[in-house]
Inverse folding.
């Protein structure tokens, strides 16, 4: 392998690492932002004592997100420990 090829390999690896790191930071930032924006919903569902009160928390979400988060919580509620 020539020095030019080795330098090109290192450059390619460095750029790939930077792109991967940027994507990871974007995912973390998006998740953090989502949790901050909808913290009222998450607090409401955690503090709910009954299933009906948990379902009332859906009013804190925009209509577009309701099916996504309700499916997740209802499938988790259906699990039971044996």
């Amino acid at each position: 392998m020539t020095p030019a090829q080795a330098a090109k390999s290192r450059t390619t690896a460095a750029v790939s690492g930077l792109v991967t790191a940027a994507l990871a930071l974007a995912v973390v930032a998006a998740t953090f932002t989502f949790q901050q924006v909808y913290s009222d919903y998450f607090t409401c569902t955690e503090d709910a004592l009954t299933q009906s009160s948990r379902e009332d928390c859906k009013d804190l979400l925009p209509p577009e997100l309701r099916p996504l988060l309700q499916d997740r919580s209802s499938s988790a509620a259906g699990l039971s420990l044996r």
User: Anything to note?
Assistant: The mean pLDDT is 84. The radius of gyration is 22 Å.
